[in-house]
Amino acid sequence: MLTWKRIASWLMLSILTASLVVGCGLAANHHGSGDDPTGDTSTQSASACRVIEHDLGETEVCGEPQKVVTLSLHMMDLLLSLDKQPIASTMTLNIHQGDSFDNPAQQIPYLGDRLTTQPVNLGSDHTPSIERLFALEPDLIIGEASRSADEYDLLSQIAPTLLWDNRTGQGNWQESLRDIAMALGQGEKAETVIQQVEARIADVRADFAEVVATHPNLLVLGANNPDEGFLVIDPDGYLGELLSSIGFQLIPPPPGALDAANPLMSIEVLPTLNEADSIIVLGWNADVDEGLENSDASSDESATQQIESHQGRAIQQNWQANAIAQSLTASEENRVYFATFYKWNGLNGPAGAELILAELRQFFLGE
After folding, report:
1. Domain ranges, residue 64
2. Do 110 and 161 fall into the same domain?
């Protein structure tokens, strides 16, 4: 059942739609009456528009959108890589309570220091503020189908909306980046960004030649508490593509161990993965009510520092206290490393890859 808030949003958008229809009709009549004595309509021609395919259909985008809204940190990553700043955004773990990110370096995890503007805070990825979004009158909205599919029709009435699914799939961020670049009217920019990422990976691969020759087998896990189960990161996904490009051989989930209804594996399965030379454990604690505080300008810790501590510390303590985890060869030889699920499997774009490559250097090269 629709909430009163949602009903009010629909009514507001219905009024907007009617106003736009009337307004466009008046503008067309006015334009035809002599405002443009040359009769030149080239700026309004169909050639200025392009149809962008995305996972929820096809959307026409015209001109060069200036006011772009991102509905996830992943989409912010892609937009920033194209040298475009968002006017507003949601957050997966939105620990800032203000109406805007007036100090983004402090308030937006991992990407805040790349922002030169102060985007409006639209709240959580799954429940963006429709009222704030409507008031912004954006030119383009980009987001993830897994989080915003139910709102697609509503969002599309506000502005052309593009949604993509499965950001962690191999090759998916590159395709989304190409689509966004095309929507922005700068299609060639995407290929430049992709080539820059590939060049960075090539540099790391060269530096890691000795590491991967000595310890090639890498296991990447996601967990909050190993006793409650863990996730084995699929070698065929985004992380698998990145890490194998460096030279690592990712250990896949045990045959028959995956369950679509519950992808978490029991801690008792862990010894079957003991061929791992090294293990990276990604903490995913998403409880924003525990240990996270409003990251305003006066906070002692930035949003990035809080999430690193919040998601990383607990899994490290739990891993070190678990007898099965400690029995693994990688544990005994001190080759287990801890990172955040948010960074490693949440950004999935050029900036995310850059952050992961930097952390890999810390883990394996001590840089």
Report:
1. 48-194
2. yes
54: in domain: yes
CATH classification of the domain holding 163? 3.40.50.1980
The reported pLDDT for the residue numbered 293 is 59
Let me know if 116 is exposed, middle or buried by CB neighbors in 10 A (0-12, 13-18, 19+): exposed
Same domain, 226 and 116: no
Task: State the Cα–Cα distance between residues 250 and 257, nearest whole angstrom.
Answer: 16
Q: What is the percent of the chain where pLDDT is above 90? A: 65
Same domain assignment for residues 189 and 242: no
Burial of 230 (0-12, 13-18, 19+ CB in 10 A): buried
Q: Given 160, 194, 228, which residue is the final one in a domain?
A: 194
Residue 62 to residue 45: CA distance in whole angstroms: 9
User: Per residue in 140-186, pLDDT tens?
Assistant: 999 999 899 999 999 999 999 999 998 988 999 999 999 999 999 99
Residue 317 neighbours by CB under 8 Å, 6+ apart: none
